[in-house]
Specification:
Elements (H helix, E strand, L loop, with lengths): L2 H17 L8 H23 L10 H21 L4 H27 L2 H24 L2 H13 L13 H29 L1
Helix pairs in contact: 2-3, 2-7, 4-5, 5-6, 5-7, 6-7
């Protein structure tokens, strides 16, 4: 074997190692997307039918459903790969930050008395930006595109004020479908093809 052949084998193996990624997290977007979209839609219907103040508290079901699902899927992914890549660490940190920012921002807006005016635009923007940045980190174009669309749509709730504010829930549910559920299913299909 010549030195050129040896160098070619080394470069090819290095390229394969550098291009290989342990793709995980395919269920995390769905674990948060479905509970968020469904509960916001149910909350919208309840407010339209009954107009009761207690309906606003249905959102507390989202973390009660999403957090255990997220923990379960993180454990499954870790058992499958036995390690976490830098990309996975960045994405997990990003979404933890978004979760904390949505809670802190919601509480601050509630105390300031502007929750109904700004929160759902804020939440839609956070979801859109998270989806966009996840797409950039993973180099997965559908997440990037869905993140841009969701971020642009996050402006719509600002125009639904006063008696129309319950429609912010409906729009945010739709944004969640675009930012989490659609790219979640596309990414899940991508991961299945990757591992097949």
């Amino acid at each position: 074997m010549t030195s050129e052949e040896e160098l070619d084998i080394i470069n090819r193996m290095r390229g394969e190692v550098m291009s290989r990624k342990d793709v995980t997290g395919e269920n995390l977007f769905l674990a948060w997307g479905y509970p968020t979209a469904i509960i916001l839609f149910i909350e919208f219907l309840a407010l339209m039918m009954w107009g009761e103040g207690w309906c606003v508290w249905l959102w507390t079901l989202i973390p009660m459903i999403g957090a255990p699902l997220m923990i379960h899927y993180l454990r499954v992914d870790y058992k499958r790969t036995q390690h976490r890549t830098h990309e996975q660490g960045y994405i997990l940190t990003l979404w933890i930050f978004i979760g904390i920012a949505s809670c802190v921002g919601g509480a601050a807006m509630g105390f300031a008395g502007v929750f109904e005016k700004f929160y759902f635009s804020y939440l839609g923007l956070l979801c859109g930006l998270g989806c966009f940045l996840t797409g950039i980190i993973l180099d997965f174009r559908p997440k990037t595109v869905c993140g841009i669309i969701a971020s642009l749509l996050s402006v719509v709730p600002l125009f639904l004020q006063g008696e129309y504010w319950p429609f912010q829930l409906l729009v945010t549910s739709f944004i969640t479908v675009i930012a989490l559920i659609i790219p979640g299913h596309l990414f899940k299909r991508y991961v299945r093809e990757y591992y097949s």
